[in-house]
Amino acid sequence: MKNKNIYILLLLFCASFQIKAQQIPAPKQTKSILILNATAHLGDGTVIQNSAVGFKDGKITLVADATTIRLAADAYDTTIDASGKHIYPGFIAPNSTLGLVEIDAVKSSDDMEEIGSFNPNVRSIIAYNSESKVVETVRPNGVLIAQITPRGGTISGTSSVVQLDAWSWQDAILKENDGIHLNFPSSFKRSGSWFEPGVIEPNKDYPKQVEEINAFLVNAKAYNQTAAKERNVVLEATKALFEGTQTLYIHADEEKQIIDAIQLALNNQINKIVIVGGFEAYKSADLLKKHNVGVLLRRVHDMPTNDDQDVNLPYKMAKILTDKGIIVGLENSGDHERMSVRNLPFLAGTCAAFGLDKEKALQLITSNTAKLLGIESTCGILETGKDATLFISEGDALDMRTNKLTAAFIQGRTINLETFQTKLNDKFKAKFNQK
Q1: Which of 144, 236, 242, 320 has the greatest number of CB atoms lying within 10 Å of its CB?
Q2: Residue 94's pLDDT band (boundaries 50, 70, 90)?
Q3: Closest CA to 312 of 353, 268, 252, 271
Q4: Cα–Cα distance, 412 to 408 (Å, whole number)
Q5: What domains appear along the chain, each with residue ranges and CATH number?
Q6: Over the stretch 281-330, which tens digit does the pLDDT of each residue have?
Q7: Strand order in the sheet with 78-81
């Protein structure tokens, strides 16, 4: 009887909470849609002032100048007049932990890091929570695709690319196991703390740390080239790196880090490389270009890494690298990184404000990132045959003052842009509008 009363009390306690479930994912597209008269930013540098963009069954079927084509009245089931508005391909957020952590202070909701130093077999996708409340808050700013990336250790694990409206992690996948993430050691270290940094000193353990990485890759390559007697899932997980079908994402900022990391990878016959962070990548531009290494540039809205650097250098870095012929994307890891994903378009806007052409700035979070993640065949550009993952904005989507989405589509499905925050906004607007 006592246990029964306890169960009843627990049920009543649970029932006292209002359950706020994640939005229901949109159903598959069943009716074709045509968007007319908007300014279309294709994501490859092209702009069509009076555009016609059509899609059916989740794929783009038409991208053209509306003033030069003729369409039958019944060519599309639904027509949207977007006069005065802008169309963009969905923005792509690389190196993200969206869906891996819900509440930082609640350990049971944190799945972004695994114990151990070398974890290529850790697949972030199986921990991805498609019902995360944070995920739905980034879509109203145009971020519709993300690379879900593990953290920690020397080799953090394997990332995957997802679209941000799905019932489960299986449904969300755009590209599974796209790459392995290596956190390359720094050749220097700084004493002190973040609020009172000390002097910069050489990292005496650097040669040893680099040799450990090299030894692991040598063993992994040997394991995958021979018939092993016993299965080793850690080494087995690296097989695609040596086959050239998977990318090695090297997290490094310093010039020496970048040079040593690229050379180490090439020495082990790993040729598909992307630098993540890359604050001093401009110093090694010739090496990057020679080996076709792209850069997912560290958070633009940040301070320089050295005291004697130009305070505006982070804002100018994308232009510097682009002018040197490097494929550049933008990533936003760091403090408050999950909720800050919504600011991704404004990072690109800052790059444009500091000299980069506006359409090239758009490429930083669309076509360039798609190329670096290996999803350019389906995403990143408004082009016939690609996924209809796009949105309509009232104004310039790279400007926080005018980024206001009126509609968004993922693989042709009409996405709900309402969030808990927009509901609160509407609630209190109604309150103060009441007489």
Answers
A1: 144
A2: very high
A3: 353
A4: 9
A5: 23-90+380-435 (2.30.40.10), 91-378 (3.20.20.140)
A6: 999 999 999 999 999 999 999 988 888 888 999 999 999 999 999 999 99
A7: 59-65, 51-56, 33-36, 78-81
Token pair listed for 53: 């963009």
Q: DSSP label at 18? A: P
Number of H helices, E strands in the chain: 13, 20
Contacts of 415 (CB under 8 A, 6+ apart): 26, 139, 144, 165, 408, 409
Apex 348 CA angle, 347 and 351, nearest 5: 95
Q: What sign does the dihedral 158-408-418-393 (CA atoms) show?
A: positive
Which tens digits make up the pLDDT trace of 391-404? Answer: 999 999 999 999 99
Other beta carbons within 10 angstroms of residue 3's beta carbon come to 7
Is residue 202 exposed (0-12), middle (13-18) or buried (19+ Cβ within 10 Å)? exposed
Cα distances (Å, whole numbers) of residue 36 to 55, 78, 192, 254, 263: 12, 11, 58, 47, 50
